[in-house]
Design brief:
about 15% strand
Length: about 425
């Protein structure tokens, strides 16, 4: 009977442990606790759903898992077909190359130097704002395969600017070798990932001044910039309006401090005007100290006017720095302090936006801390449950008066004790009999 009770108790404890394990795994999987406990990195460059990461894997390494590990569970290794689909739906390869900061291959230097510049179409890509060249380009897959047949050569996408080097083996290309699908050997470099980044991994503002904050975006004119401000900086922030800037200025705010604080650069079309003005007039009111402000970001910060994002068609409103000199032909909708700041409008995708609202640094960081704390607590709770179950099993198997009665050690001791008592009684009885 004792052994049967011990067996039943052991089975019950095992069932309890298994149940705790299953429930814990389900809870962790549902909450992504194991993934979110560790900080997720930021891509080196992003364009729409494409993101560049650095890695140190060889040809057999799992880049799909590396994309997930660095950028989150919703991200995978990009496929050549993703790029083809982007291009065939009207996507610009110039914007793709520029947005992902793709550098020109080293083997392109000689062909470009030797070719007649008039026979090819060159694109305005700022070579100072590209990633350093890495052999093998940006690693991707092709039709879901990271390697080309059984050769061990990994697929990559490369920028060729319409000129394919002699001897380069291409598997496909877009727009007459503007982008090329190649394959090669090697360890490390860049990989191109694909997917929607979680908004909680966005950066902090690029610059802040009072309640004004600069963010970078990749939205077109019809997109919701207000939602983008909230996604990056929190629910208390919205897209800034021209009236917010006017209210700041009318209440005595300094536009010089505003420009410096938000790191507003001078427009390119202003540089020639200032040089001409300096030559013609020695006392021209051009604020040279503002032009030399370090770490400038940009000039055209998208805003709204009276709550409207656009002025006629697709021309979005923006605030620009003109330092009291408005370029000829520039259409202004309003200005402050004799064109020190100007409200303009234009078409285009991406750039910078000016957000407005009070950043709640402590709650935002507290929220992230709480998320991490909850994740850690969930792990600790699971561990505690396992420990509790283990202690319970020990309690069941070792405590003599609960569920199964006395344990075998106690029973053996009692049997020995009874034997001794019986022997003593027998000796006593024999002694009594002898005396009689």
């Amino acid at each position: 009977m004792l052994k049967q009770k011990q067996f039943i108790a052991t089975v019950l404890v095992c069932c309890l442990l298994f149940g705790v394990f299953v429930v814990s795994i389900y809870a962790l999987k549902a909450s992504n606790s194991l993934t979110n406990m560790f900080p997720v990195g930021k891509p080196l460059a992003s364009f729409e759903k494409f993101h560049v990461i650095a890695h140190d894997l060889d040809e057999m390494g799992d880049l799909d898992e590396e994309c997930k590990a660095q950028l989150g569970t919703g991200i995978r290794l990009a496929d050549w077909n993703d790029i083809v689909q982007y291009y065939e739906t009207g996507g610009s390869l110039e914007e793709f190359i520029s947005g992902l900061k793709m550098s020109q291959r080293d083997d392109m230097n000689l062909p470009v130097d030797n070719i007649n510049i008039d026979t090819i179409v060159l694109y305005d890509i700022d070579e100072k704002r590209v990633l350093p060249y890495a052999p093998g380009g940006h690693r991707i897959s092709y039709n879901g395969n990271p390697l080309w047949v059984d050769s061990g050569r990994h697929f990559f996408v490369s920028r060729h600017d319409h000129i394919k080097p002699p001897g380069f083996l291409e598997h496909s290309n877009l727009n007459d070798f503007q982008l090329t699908l190649g394959s090669w050997y090697g360890q490390g470099g860049y990989a191109l990932c694909y997917g929607e980044l979680n908004s909680k991994f966005k950066d902090k503002p690029l610059a802040s001044f009072g309640n004004f904050h600069v963010i970078e975006h990749d939205l077109h004119e019809l997109a919701d910039h207000d939602a983008e401000c909230k996604a990056q900086l929190g629910e208390n922030v919205r897209l800034a309006d021209w009236n917010d800037i006017v209210a700041y200025y009318d209440s005595g705010g300094s536009l010089e401090d505003f420009i410096i604080g938000l790191k507003m650069s001078l427009r390119d079309d202003m540089k020639g005007i200032f040089e001409t003005a300096k030559r013609l007039r020695k006392n021209v009111d051009t604020e040279d100290d503002l032009q030399q402000t370090p770490d400038l970001i940009g000039n055209e910060y998208r805003i709204s006017r009276d709550g409207s994002l656009r002025w006629q068609g697709n021309r979005h409103y923006f605030v620009g720095r003109h330092d009291h000199l408005k370029p000829f032909g520039f259409l202004d909708h309003d200005n402050l302090n004799n064109y020190q700041l100007t409200l303009g409008s234009w078409s285009g995708k991406g750039g910078f936006a000016l957000s407005y609202g009070k950043l709640i640094d402590i709650p935002i960081s507290l929220s992230k801390t709480l998320k991490s704390t909850i994740d850690i607590l969930s792990i600790l709770i699971v561990c505690c449950l396992f420990i509790a179950a283990a202690l319970t099993s020990i309690h069941i198997l070792k405590i003599p008066n609960w569920l199964i009665g006395k344990n075998s050690v106690a029973i053996s001791q009692n049997i020995e004790k009874k034997k001794i008592e019986i022997e003593e009684l027998q000796k006593l009885q024999e002694k009594i009999s002898d005396e009689e």
